[in-house]
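Justification of resources, computational component.

The compute hours requested in this renewal are based largely on the per-chain cost of generating structure records like the one below. Each record pairs the submitted sequence with a full structure-token output. That output is archived, and it is also reused by downstream analysis tasks.
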Amino acid sequence: MKIAILGGGHGCYAAAADLSEAGHEVRLWRRDAAALQPVIDAGAIVLKDAQGAREVAIASASADIGATLRGAELVLIPSPAIAQADIARAMAPHLVDGQVVFLPPGSFGSWVMAQAVRAAGNRADVAWAETGTLPYLARKHGPREINVSVRAVRLPTGVYPQRHQDRALAVIERAYPSVHGCGNALSAALMNAGPIIHPPLMVMNAAPLQHFERWDIHGEGTQPAVRAVTDRLDQERIAVRAALGYAAPHYPLADHYNSDRWMYGDAHKQLVKSGDWREHIDLHKHRYITEDTELGLAFLASVARWAGVDAPIAQGLLAIVGGFLGRDLRQGERTLEALGLAELTAPQLQQRLHDGD
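The structure output for this chain reads:
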């Protein structure tokens, strides 16, 4: 299958190497041509995992997004949600009928990007899909070297518009057999693990993060008090899903720590063991704040307000992060209010998510 991968982050390089090794024709696009040049020159990415390190050739690496998208059945965007609007504008002139765009994860980006492409004048009949996490726990070890600690074993995925669900899932499943449907785009957005895991870790580790040059929030930063808050926040997420009529499995985050039933299986110990998450984290600029809190957690809190679900942990974490950022995160760009959806009733929103525009 011809697959276009858009972005230059950890997940993008992991996907490019992993899917190429699986036999797909992968084209990697990155806006920063200079940063992509080592991959262009070598024609390959070094993939490291439990099987060791090896060179994996990829079909192409380019800063030309039109050439990258041409003929692609699947467009994969494992990039942070903060990049989605820019990527949507860049890809808008090139999308055609029948393509499937997959955001792992999305933070409701399937809706946001579809609207941006339409606003740019492209009326192509595209299926947009998103899931609850990256298919990989991965970190770059060099300009063209990616270390994959864990691969996802379950990827609950929603599709916008939902009427394209069967077609979209059939395409994505050829790349990721672990994918399974979980309903519409809102259901998938409420599977997103990042806004549940990372805001408590950032807030409750704020002092050591600012004191130490490097700190592992998933290792020594994950203590019982943090876990207790994370579990309560996740209960709020599940309560929102239940209030909107979304069925189990909800993938409770406790399974990430305690069992093999979560999206990555029994992954937490492997994550800590890898050492890749002992890093410098800027409380103002790191994607755990810019993506998972300012966008993802603000989105969850807004859906809770709209659904009439009490969510004091989500609202409290937003208030604290807003306190050190100096702004009210309840007014964020990815709330239902900002997206123009808060005035819809639940049946109206569900219908719109099914039918599309």
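Residues 194-245+280-355 form a domain with the N-(1-d-carboxylethyl)-l-norvaline Dehydrogenase; domain 2 fold (CATH 1.10.1040.10). The chain has a mean pLDDT of 94.
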